[in-house]
């Protein structure tokens, strides 16, 4: 196994990496700096766009657009020149709440969770799905910081966590209707003193989760057993994604300054990592269909 830095870019709050096989690029966001970025396989930055509000998560898109994005309070499509075309602004709540982690399901719909950061005692966040026709559907409520959104290879399981709760959940997911089954506990990160952030799956159905407070990536079996942890050279890993020509590189965004509790003076904090030699391959992310 080898862990190297990918690009020389140091992000404040790096999140939502997604490999774009159409171009051979890795896209990601810097939420705190309101940016979407992309780099080629050599780590050379190819795109860098700055917006008027945070971008919580992104996914690939088609139909003449490059990306779908969950901005702080709305969904939008992103053109190749960076222009953002708003789609819908669902009622996610007022005050200190914004969109956060997100992924497309295997049918080309885009899910994004919300998070609250104003210290409210009540759990006001949840998960929304951007439908193919452009409407938005609320899927889950009663959360504070929705994270770890990803799908099993077959698409019949949705993984999701509330970072502040510390438990990665799973839900039966109907690929055709998008209906959720009952909430199930999948892996309790509290048992290892960790908090889950972003996550992805590999071709064998194992879940790879950023253990943000432990400076590790955790690999969890489809049955919910912790198989291994990987120590990282910088603090606060935020989100992993498989990519590269053979989908065998695990890219990991990290955090230098979240604007809240997570802040590091490590000289390489916020840099992207590229991990190879894991003996695992990822699955191409689904593309949002308008």
Beta-strand percentage? Answer: over 45%
**Poorly predicted segments:** none
* Percent helix: under 10%
Gap between N and C termini, in Å? 39 Å
Identify the strand order in the major beta sheet. 9-8-7-6-25
What is the alpha-carbon Rg in Å? Answer: 17 Å
Which assembly state applies to the chains in this document? Answer: single chain
What is the CATH-assigned architecture? 6 Propeller
What is the N-to-C succession of helices and strands? EEEEEEEEEEEEEEEEEEEEEEEEE
How many DSSP H or I helices?
Answer: 0
CATH topology: Neuraminidase
Averaged pLDDT: 96
Describe the structure.
The protein has 290 residues and is mainly β. The protein has a single domain, classed as 6 Propeller (Neuraminidase), CATH 2.120.10. 0% of the residues lie in helices and 53% in strands. It is built from no helices and 25 strands. It has strands at 2-10, 14-20, 25-30, 35-40, 45-50, 55-61, 67-71, 75-78, 84-88, 97-104, 110-116, 125-130, 136-143, 146-151, 157-162, 167-173, 180-188, 196-201, 207-211, 216-220, 226-231, 237-243, 249-254, 271-276, 287-288. It has a five-stranded mixed β-sheet, with no helix packed on it. A hairpin with a 4-residue loop joins β15 (157-162) and β16 (167-173). The chain is globular, with a radius of gyration of 17 Å. 48% of the residues are buried. The mean pLDDT is 96.
């Amino acid at each position: 196994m080898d862990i190297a830095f990918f690009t020389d870019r140091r992000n404040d709050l790096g999140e939502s990496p997604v490999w774009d096989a159409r171009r051979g690029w890795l896209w990601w966001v810097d939420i705190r700096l309101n940016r979407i970025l992309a780099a080629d396989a050599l780590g050379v930055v190819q795109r860098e766009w700055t917006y008027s509000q945070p971008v919580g998560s992104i996914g690939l898109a088609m139909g003449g657009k490059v990306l779908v994005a969950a901005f702080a309070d709305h969904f939008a499509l992103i053109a190749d020149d960076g222009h953002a075309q708003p789609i819908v602004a669902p009622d996610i709540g007022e005050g200190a709440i914004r969109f956060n982690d997100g992924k497309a399901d295997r049918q080309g719909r885009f899910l994004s969770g919300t998070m609250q950061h104003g210290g409210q005692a009540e759990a006001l966040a949840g998960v929304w799905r951007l439908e193919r026709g452009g409407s938005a559907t609320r899927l889950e409520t009663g959360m504070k910081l929705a994270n770890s959104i990803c799908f099993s290879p077959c698409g019949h399981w949705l993984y999701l966590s509330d970072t502040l709760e510390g438990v990665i959940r799973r839900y039966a997911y109907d690929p055709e209707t998008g209906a959720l089954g009952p909430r199930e506990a999948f892996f309790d990160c509290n048992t290892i003193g960790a908090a889950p952030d972003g996550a992805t799956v590999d071709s064998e159905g194992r879940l790879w989760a950023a253990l943000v407070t432990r400076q590790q990536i955790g690999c969890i079996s489809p049955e919910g057993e912790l198989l291994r942890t990987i120590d990282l050279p910088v603090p606060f890993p935020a989100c992993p994604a498989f990519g590269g020509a053979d989908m065998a590189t695990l890219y990991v965004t990290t955090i230098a300054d979240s604007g809240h509790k997570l802040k590091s003076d490590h000289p390489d904090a916020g840099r992207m990592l590229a991990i190879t030699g894991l003996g695992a391959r990822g699955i191409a992310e689904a593309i949002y269909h308008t």
